[in-house]
Amino acid sequence: MTIIHEPLEKKDVRGSDQPTPHQGWSVNRIALWGIVISFMLVSIWSLIDIGVNPLTLFFERDDIGNLLQRMWPPTITELSSVWDATLDTFFMAFVGTFLGFLLAVPLGFLAATNMTRFAPLRAIARGVIVFTRAIPDLVFALIFVRVYSIGVLPGVLAIGLHSIGMLGKLFADSIEQIQTGPREGVQATGARRSQDIATGVLPQIVPSFIAITLYRLDINFRSSTLLGLVGAGGIGLQIRAYQGGLRYPELLGVTLLIIALIVLVEIVSTSVRATILGHDRTKVGLLTRLRGGPPASAFARSDSPPAGTPTNSASLRPPWTRERVTMYLFGLVTLVMLVLSFTMSDMSLGDMITGLPEIPQVLWRLVPTQFDWWQSQFADLLIETVLMGFAATFLALIFAVPTGFLAARNVAPARWVYVTARTFILGVRALPDLIVAVIFVAALGLGPKPGVLALAIGLFGFATKLFADAIEEVQEGPRDGIRATGASRLQESFSGVLPQVMPSLVGNSLYLLDVSIRGSTVLGIVGGGGIGFPLLQGAKLLKWDLLGGLLILIFLIVYTIELLAGWVRRRII
Amino acid sequence: MVTDTGSRSPIVEVTSLTKTFDNGRVRALDDVTLSVPEGQMTVIIGLSGSGKSTLLRHLNGMHQPTSGAVRVLGSDLVGLGSKDLRRLRRDIGFVFQSFNIVGRLSCLENVMSGALGRLRGPRYGVLSYSRSLRREALEQLDRVGLGDRAFQRTDTLSGGQQQRVAIARTLMQQPRIVLADEPVASLDPEISGQVMDVLFRSCVEDNITVLCSLHQVDLALGWANRMIGLRDGRVVLDTAVDTALDTERVMEVYKRLDPTGEKATEYESPAVHQ
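Structure tokens for the assembled complex are given below, as produced in the milestone run.
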């Protein structure tokens, strides 16, 4: 029999019976390699251009050491105002996340293909999501501080608005991933649309919505410590004052306090998330792993029926199972926190309610009407911003890939190595990158160099966690297969593990580039180079045209990178 | 041929039903005509891809015909508005091969969702249903033998138990017709027998008309009083079961016309135990 032509509709040509010794050079493959190689080239060029290399921190140890000496010993003065500022910070993050959740839920439904049939509506929802994701919360805060004056309110609004981006996207994704079967079953009983959503859709998405929002709360608490740098209330205001007054011991003291709080919030949020999501290993944090594996989920399967419920005499009210108690407690805590937010911080519900509807108007004012805001130096600064993003990603990756292998439980050479590596990256991740930038700028002077180093450190922590988690996800089968051939441990990692994690390694790297370029747009606000400085100036001088114009340019850059990264990720995964 | 249709009015009438997918490239149903009187237990047999599911899905409006007419409970299903379709579906229960229950909900809540067609407004949580509905649902769960699992999460049950919850949900609808699409295809033989018993016994008790598609011919023989065979979207067998059933003729349904044809790849042997 001869092989007949594969019909053109069949996409998977690689699946044909004829193994080819050489992979063909398809257009896609050329484009893919083109992008990977240009990523390398741009990264190396940016390292040279900015004047950093993987050993820069080592070479600059004298300057950084000197600064640390001036910072020593860390102190905390004005305890009561620091305490107030800390509370403000937390409540700002909490209310901001809640606001983001309220706005993101309808957007998520509007953006999901299985909920909204009308394509233009979906496109609008996606547009809002993409825009709010691309503009850093610090930039929103910068603008809102000018409109609502210094305080917690602009911080809440900035966090709320920026959170829509990630929450809306993940909500839409999780709505699109629900099983259609249960919905079909509910619809077949003659249920109305609203009933179908409440009974067939909601139960499937509630746990992931809660988990996603908790994750966002964690992220928002990190960034809320920084919003004060542009005047948006919280502990960041304190940092700005210490930085401006060269009060370095207090700067270090507050920084350490923030790190401790961030670790604490992460631990709490991961344990709550683990309780709600259950066995999902990737989302369980360090502490729960150190305690010996993820905890039994409140929703976990239990094969034994509730004991002692004889037929017919069974109650008509649901019993207080662990799952139900957890959900009620969770709701209660959320409510209490909301009440506390408005009573204990200098945030007023009235201001929020009057402030919120003004946002579209504020954003509208940013739409540039003419082009006289453009200055030729902006082009250089925008290029510098992008290069900073590349440089920071590249530096972070060089260190993150090997550390990721050490921090993966199933690959690490010994348990103590794994525990040490995980603890180390938890600590690194708790360092807010802009505070590191503040310190590096103080030590090394203004410019892109301290900015890139600070950004790279933050990305390193994030990347290592992503990689380690991806490595822990690999299937054991292929590894066993390699081991059975008599391979050494290192060979096993290369042949059994690396091929499995390669797609997620590349995918995560591209995601990091995306995050990195977004991060590099705001470094200039603390003197770390790039487009952030003119943004800050524009806000200070209330030049709305300039602010809006730069925002649009930033959005275009970030969005282009995101589209490119998404395209490559789809090709390889 | 079925002879006792005269005394009872037809509850399902399908006339020259043809359904094609992929712009006519796949012909799932080809000129199917049949009529089912109230109270009849009909079993539809045939290979995978013979059109059994497609036929059933036309009977509650989940599919719209390419040509032909479908009348169920006196309503013409072709071009029925979504509101009228919803109202009609309250009277038509559907039991799915994959159960299609909401796994995260408790058994009781899944059963109560069968009453949504009678209720106004969305419900979330057991307590959002009235006490009498909860009692009614518990009774239905008892009927399928799962009264003690009312507040257990449904996805913690075994497959056979999950399908029984789905049957209880269908009974909760108080339907006049139950359409069952391969209700036991994903269960092992022993459990299959139990589930079929629960389904048919309840429907006999409540005087519900049943149309059930099946692979396993032996399971069909126990309950059905009529058997319809489909092959490549055509009716190739239509016989009463209480008369002496010719095994040869039943097996004909499973014979393929052309072993080298497209259907050959989908061949699976029917489970006939003699």
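The mean pLDDT of chain B is 85. Residues 258 and 264 of chain B are 8 Å apart (CA to CA). Further analysis is deferred to the final report.
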